[in-house]
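URGENT: need a sanity check before tomorrow's submission.

F., can you look over the Peptidyl-prolyl cis-trans isomerase record below? I want to be sure the sequence and structure line up before it goes out.
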Amino acid sequence: MGKDKGGGGKAQAAREAAEKKAVADSKAKGVEAMEVRHILVEKHGKAAEIIEIIKSGKMGFNEAAREYSMDKAGKSGLLGWKRKPELDQDFWAAALDVPEGKYTEEPVKTQYGYHIIMVQARK
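Structure tokens as predicted:
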């Protein structure tokens, strides 16, 4: 899951608790669809390297998707609104754990390779 920069202590803990609650609420309500972006690469190490580049602020998620993703079909990694049957089950499961506006902090392995997944919105 993605982390915000700055802030610490009780405020940071409160934000993290709120994010976890929002994710749990989404699961309990039954998410029908998610608007997602992704970066797809062949190797775990490359995905981990890209995550560090994004975290460091050297490059934004969209720019990194354009630069590194093997999936050139989606602009800036945008897959759009997807329902569970449209996505790999491991991709869907990982995306459920990501708060809106955040991305996975660990690469997600699917049959296609390794993904960094950003969740834009849920419904």
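My own read: The mean pLDDT is 87. The domain at 9-122 is CATH 3.10.50.40 (Chitinase A; domain 3). If you see anything odd, call me.
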